[in-house]
């Protein structure tokens, strides 16, 4: 039976803080959070990037944070949560269309919708689905949007699995590698998480720059 202090600690968890989530729910919490962030529109605010990186760091035992995770179960939980969540979001979009998104009053969510639409229009289905994994909020709304816009199931599944594995396993292993090689790396956790989030945006920024250069080149030849 769960003791009152432990139960109180779980109830007091800060869902915006990666360490708080990991301390309360451990490896299974990672899968649940990623499922909610990528599959349910209400999860757009959850800290997917920082959660993955911090979880990988805590697998090394070098971080003095009172939490120790196991790498293999963590990788499985992260992958399952990320992939199942995206597929669930797609199916919700197929069934409910854009109604759920249209009803939302969240400015941040609507901005994510706008960016997701731009990705789909500019890069096509495959690249948009892949790149969206690395953009917070966009990775939440693009999945139901893909379903609502009737993106073929095979196309969506192939690229969401590819992007989901690169994102979830890549960030987790990055945290693990850094924690294994740098003593007391947890002292620099906040700036490292910020750096990881910035690095995760590199694929999107690269595509944007390449598209703009191509457009400028085409205008120059006219």
From TrEMBL:
Q: How does it sit in the membrane?
A: Multi-pass membrane protein
Q: Pfam families under this entry? A: VTT_dom
Tagged with keyword rRNA-binding: no
- State the source organism's domain of life: Bacteria
Segments forming domain VTT = 46-176
Q: Which UniProt keywords apply?
A: Cell membrane, Membrane, Transmembrane, Transmembrane helix
Please classify the protein's predominant subcellular localization into one broad category.
membrane
Q: Which residues cross the membrane?
A: 21-46, 71-93, 164-182, 188-209
State where the protein is found: Cell membrane
Q: Which family does it belong to?
A: Belongs to the DedA family.
Q: Which PANTHER family match?
A: INNER MEMBRANE PROTEIN DEDA-RELATED, TRANSMEMBRANE PROTEIN
State the name under which the record lists this protein.
Answer: Membrane protein
Organism lineage reads as: Bacteria, Bacillati, Actinomycetota, Actinomycetes, Kitasatosporales
